[in-house]
Design goal:
Distance between the termini of chain B: 36 Å
Shape of chain A: globular
Radius of gyration of chain B: 13 Å
Oligomer: heterodimer
Low-confidence stretches of chain A: none
Helix content of chain A: under 10%
Number of strands of chain B: 11
Structural class of chain B: mainly beta
Largest sheet of chain A: 6 strands, mixed
Order of helices and strands of chain A: EEEEEEEEEEE
Largest interface: A-B, 24 and 23 residues
Mean pLDDT of chain A: 90
Mean pLDDT of chain B: 93
Largest sheet of chain B: 7 strands, mixed
Chain lengths: ~110, ~110
């Protein structure tokens, strides 16, 4: 079973790129990695999902190397409103569709 | 289209009391989930349902029961609340299971004294 690990926090400045890595050993080829954003007193909100190589949407990119032991969420040109907690989620089909959230990374964007 | 709603938003219980948390979704999703979120521990899955009339245990099911009598509703029950169940509870739903986007409700903050 995978154990997902993320950095507890990171600081950045407006306009910079923020990269958050999630470590998840032992995931299968077709297991998906999903990232969520959470603001205080709100439920998590979907950002991006993928299971191999690179996925890009209008708000983020997700990089998954060939060994699939980690994945990196990339937020380009962050603004103050991107200050939030970011969670990775691994869904393991072989483990009975087990869903495992990482502990979350608190990102603080400074002016 | 309200998405996922949760009732109540906040509740205080005494140890040993019981209560039911209600989750409702209007997206016709098959799958629904209950999570708890504690400081520094992320979200942990309590129970989930893959369709009307079905339920399954997640990572931390002890002390909780669930029911899915209607497709749009997923109830989480605490039969005898304990201080260790003080947490924020989130409900979520998805069209399919692990490879689908989950839509979360606003959460219920529960304090057990």
């Amino acid at each position: 079973l995978a154990k997902t690990t993320q950095p507890i926090s990171m600081d950045s400045y407006e306009g910079q790129e923020v990269n958050i890595t999630c470590s998840h050993n032992n995931i299968a080829t077709n297991d998906y990695i999903t990232w969520y954003q959470q603001f205080p007193s709100q439920g998590p909100r979907f950002i991006i999902q993928g299971y191999k190589t690179k996925v890009t949407n209008e708000v983020a990119s997700l990089f998954i190397p060939a060994d699939r032991k980690s994945s990196t969420l990339s937020l380009p040109r962050v603004s103050l409103s991107d200050t939030a907690v970011y969670y990775c989620l691994v869904g393991e089909k072989a483990a009975g569709n087990k869903l495992t959230f990482g502990g979350g990374t608190r990102v603080l964007v400074k002016p | 289209n309200a998405g996922v709603t949760q009732t109540p938003k906040f509740r205080v219980l005494k140890t040993g009391q019981s209560m039911t948390l209600l989750c409702a979704q209007d997206m016709n999703h098959e799958y629904m989930y209950w999570y708890r979120q504690d400081p520094g521990m992320g979200l942990r899955l309590i129970h989930y349902s893959v369709g009307e009339g079905t339920t399954a245990k997640g990572e931390v099911p002890d002390g909780y029961n669930v029911s899915r009598l209607k497709k749009q509703n997923f109830l989480l029950g605490l039969e005898s609340a304990a201080p260790s169940q003080t947490s924020v509870y989130f409900c979520a739903s998805s069209l399919n299971h692990y490879q689908e986007t989950q839509y979360f409700g606003p959460g219920t903050r529960l304090l057990v004294l």
